[in-house]
Specification:
Blueprint: H1 9-23, H2 30-37, H3 41-48, H4 51-76, H5 81-92, H6 98-113, H7 115-134, H8 146-163, H9 169-190
Length: 192
């Protein structure tokens, strides 16, 4: 008879994700994870096989959380340009301060190196862009690919904020996105 798990894989992956964000992707080792979650290294190796699989499963678990958060937010915001701004500002809340954002870029590097994780990022981008585009459905003459344009502006605003994080991230992003929406809706209203 097998022993019951004292911690689910999801709990262990949450701990692993926290370690990655606190110490960088290279710091995720079975030894460090064993100390953090209280399981033996042998148990972790049995569950996750090797460091590469542990890292991939950890980041896939993180993508699952981002996908769920994005779906939930997309279902609750109004289908208006203001709702699109609210969706992206809410997604920005997870970045925290500059140190957390900088660590997140190291995690993004890991996503870009792995084709499975890159595919998850591409799928998330497609969903997010569609959700943002739906918020402009009632806008006269919205630009083609408005969802992608807005998502790209959002990602750019995160990067520009990181060089001079003098104000709180959400406030910076909200102001930037509101100016983007004003420019888009003004230009759209002028088109025949």
């Amino acid at each position: 008879m097998t022993r019951p798990k004292t911690q689910s894989d999801e709990q262990v992956l949450e701990t692993a994700h926290r370690l990655i964000h606190e110490h960088g992707p290279e710091a995720l080792t079975f030894e460090r994870l064993a100390k953090a979650c209280g399981l033996s290294g042998a148990t972790l190796v049995q569950r996750f096989k090797n460091k590469a699989q542990l890292k991939q499963r950890t980041l896939l678990h993180a993508w699952d959380g981002l996908d769920e958060n994005t779906r939930t937010l997309a279902a609750t915001v109004p289908r208006t340009p203001t709702g699109a701004v609210a969706l992206l500002v809410a997604l920005s809340q997870g970045y925290g301060g500059i140190e957390s954002y900088a660590e997140g870029l190291l995690v993004l590097r890991e996503d870009l190196r792995d084709p499975v994780l890159r595919a998850r990022g591409a799928a998330w981008k497609a969903f997010l862009c569609d959700a943002l585009a739906a918020c402009f459905a009632e806008t006269p003459n919205p630009p083609r690919d408005i969802g992608l344009l807005m998502a790209s502006h959002w990602q750019g605003s995160l990067l520009w904020w990181s060089f001079d994080p003098a104000i709180e991230l959400a406030a910076y992003v909200e102001d930037s996105l509101n100016r983007f929406v004003a420019a888009i809706t003004t230009a759209s209203a002028r088109e025949p």
